[in-house]
């Protein structure tokens, strides 16, 4: 029955909301709750935030049109992780069958240590506990990998039996399918095990489509890593509303008269940053780095902000971008497009003749970008002597910054970067090494100067800072590097102070270019992984004492937090917007109280994105090479293990394995310290860095895996059992003779 007494107007408590939901004769959504408690204007915004918090605490299910009270849970139960929220795992019961058919509660897993060791899809035996604010659980045991969802391709064997071929190359066995769930042969699907044994069958839970269709490789990575890629209606609605906020000149510096330019990749869809410089008449320069003022549009506590925190960063694939912000903001209103008035956070710099940044200040501004120029076009104008004065001034200022950079002596590792180019149908047109131009260095050094200024400006106000931290290499990694360098006859003294310049001098003294690449890769492997954090540990690679990310708030949440901190520290708040848009554009109290928590979450999101991007490139390379199986390539050995060695195609990339079983009949010994395989009879050896010609034996686009064999002599990688090969028939993938292709069946022979 409906509540007998109407509560007094004002924001209700959690208990009042739950009482109303429980007693309401109809499904109660936000609208019904607001009507019941007589909420209007700002109170509606507060109600939305309250309901979001209650959903995260597991008190209600949080659906848009109806909220429901939760039921009970066993004291010990199996939970499945469905999300990682700011470093904490959120789970639901793995089996949920309440009598009243209510949705499962969202349960926060309390783990030991900093951040979550769990990931989306993990199943955990946990002890549950109901608190005054909802459910929480304490993990007791993580269940085996075989219990997780698997992404794979449906294939049918000669007897008509369906199998799931996993797309993750770390999972070596395929699984029988007990329930196709409407999937057909050749389709990409998500499946979960039926039973608990390692050899259990699986049932299809979601059909994703054609695995070799254009754009499928990035889709595989998105699903495998649980990357959020769909915005809710609430988020899109809010984005539309904030995109229409008037850009008021109040409290904004008008910089529309300056010829500020954005220098970006030719295919860039969003433009975070733009730059300008001119001589100051004293041998130095006045410079400006204008950055999209995302904090004006994305307010803390709103739907866009919640989604941006969850994503952490944009993810870039060859065929698509999974943006941190809705497209109306990332590609339009926030993007610094030429000829249009845009809100910007302006970093004003004074740079002396030696390239040292002597002064800085931050303002909120209105800018009108003079021109968006591709890197290649800007470089061509400079090289051909056709550059306009504003470009000449930028290059002159950069030469001063480059001089200061040289004096600082940061780590210089010029390693090639692969770039996948697609045609208009999404097919691979070319895989090439990305060219490195001075134009790239110009933008990079301006951005570094602005990032340093942002960190120091916040330090000057004793304000919260999300630092970009890159710590000195650990002793363990330095010892491994020392042992590796010894195989080249080079020494690394462990007693000296380790600086980036030490590595630079080591690399500079190497005359052989192929050897230089190997040493640079080894130095890169010795580095610690950069991360975000509220404590300043310096940036080893850039040889900087204070460093923060400020220049890319469209695609990185860390930069947005730095902008908000600057808004607070330097009183840059804008007039409050109207309607239900949150008022403040500074840091929320939640972030001020625990900046470490959100820093850890966005660091994890960054690592997730990097892994997904790398795996997708590997799949594209394998697809590019799949029609060239049997060809011989010039390769370089990149790693040696006791089971074989890994090699990459020179100039293209794509690591592949040469199994030790294919090296011939003799026995090979493995020297772990030197990373060398040596034949006991012939003395033939295989070591990191060695150049040799190898035949491509296998290229699997679904996993990104390659296999090579020796050009002549040794063994061959042959199929065991019936021969199989990847083949497209109509809209499906099947193997020759109807067998599944390039998979390993349990008890049915090994993969090629």
UniProtKB/TrEMBL annotation:
Regions of compositional bias (Basic residues) in chain numbering: 725-739
Classification via Pfam families: CSD2, RNB, S1
Chief place of localization: cytoplasm
Region of interest (Disordered), residue spans: 577-596, 719-752
Record EC number: 3.1.13.1
Hydrolase recorded as keyword: yes
Record has Nuclease as a keyword: yes
Reaction(s) the record says it catalyses: Exonucleolytic cleavage in the 3'- to 5'-direction to yield nucleoside 5'-phosphates
Group of enzyme by EC: hydrolase
Keywords from the named record: Cytoplasm, Exonuclease, Hydrolase, Nuclease, RNA-binding
UniProt-listed InterPro entries: CSD2, NA-bd_OB-fold, RNase_II/R, RNase_II/R_CS, RNase_II/RNase_R, RNase_R, RNR_Ribonuclease, S1_domain
Sequence ranges assigned to domain S1 motif in this UniProt record: 630-711
Cellular location(s): Cytoplasm
Stated role: 3'-5' exoribonuclease that releases 5'-nucleoside monophosphates and is involved in maturation of structured RNAs.
NCBIfam families xref list: 3_prime_RNase, RNase_R
Family affiliation: Belongs to the RNR ribonuclease family. RNase R subfamily.
Protein's name according to its UniProt entry: Ribonuclease R
Species, as recorded: Novosphingobium album
Lineage: Bacteria, Pseudomonadati, Pseudomonadota, Alphaproteobacteria, Sphingomonadales
